[in-house]
């Protein structure tokens, strides 16, 4: 399920040194706008060099605020230069709005709430659709969002109430083989050899603040602030005809999946394989990158190298309500999959099981990225990535009462090699490259974070 865009899924950055001074400075939009325009006039600057390939007319229109982002958006798939142009187009437009409002001394009371929500949506689209490429651009996008929220869309103070602890759901056996449990966690030097096969580190992340804080819907909303949108999958899963991705307000998504509530809605919405912790940096502080992600991995016939970003690490979030699932697929990276909130059933099978997995377009190879990151709002059908995805529902076929006639090779060849496990909050599952794996949320909802390296 790996795919590609233009930014580092775990880009680290610092907000301005004194955040209160930055937010309280009514001149910040003007000084930042002037500095950005001066940068774009310097043809030797890397950020300016990036967009020259889009043509002189468009780049000149950009500098005089006459370039509409909607003109550029359809061209994002054409290359890095178009994603750069779109990024700067939205940034300059938003900085211009902020400059005008700051000059007038406007605040939320001027009745422009929808206007500012639209501005934040555009800035989020820069992150989600384009990857906010360019030197310092991701930082600037996040800063613009913070500034708008501070002055025009403040979030009221709300107490964070944690839901009552839910009982552990019953474990459903989907395979005769269980995933190995290793406790205590192995040494860094022992990890590469062990990671040639899947294993679980019980309670590995139980001390992370995320395992407690992310249970609270109000906390998750507060970390985002007002107006934020995220890519949400709607439908069964990305193999089906009714599957689609749409941008949805973060707070609305959490409401629709009844996050942190006692209701047991079966709402098929899923935030999957998205760099949420880049988009919402406050959540990034609630987790830790496992040291294992920086270990030198052993060679593996399905491993073609780490992600192509600077850190050689991609961090993705997975959040959904009851029944949210990822179909059986393979990835070309090592993966440490950490269960943060809720429970998730995992089905796994080795690369040798591929004969009976009935993959789409079996002649295609798993996608490997050479650029800077992973695209959160993926469309595997459009991008020709289905060769690493099984066409069968391994959860249904692994059930004790499943019938065999339709997929004989799955039952005779793949299922005998399969393993299964139910992850509970704080557990970490290590998945080697090339291993088939399918995930399904169990109970009211689940939140997971994956580390590809």
Automatic annotation (TrEMBL):
InterPro entries hit by this protein: Cupin_8, JmjC_dom
Start-end of Basic and acidic residues biased regions: 366-384
Region of interest (Disordered), residue spans: 1-21, 364-386
Keyword Oxidoreductase attached: yes
Keywords: Methyltransferase, Oxidoreductase, Transferase
A GO MF label: methyltransferase activity
PROSITE patterns for this protein: JMJC (PS51184)
The keyword Protein biosynthesis is assigned to this record: no
EC number: 1.14.11.27
Residue intervals of the JmjC domain: 269-453
GO BP terms in the entry: methylation
Protein name per UniProt: Lysine-specific demethylase 8
Organism: Thanatephorus cucumeris (strain AG1-IB / isolate 7/3/14)
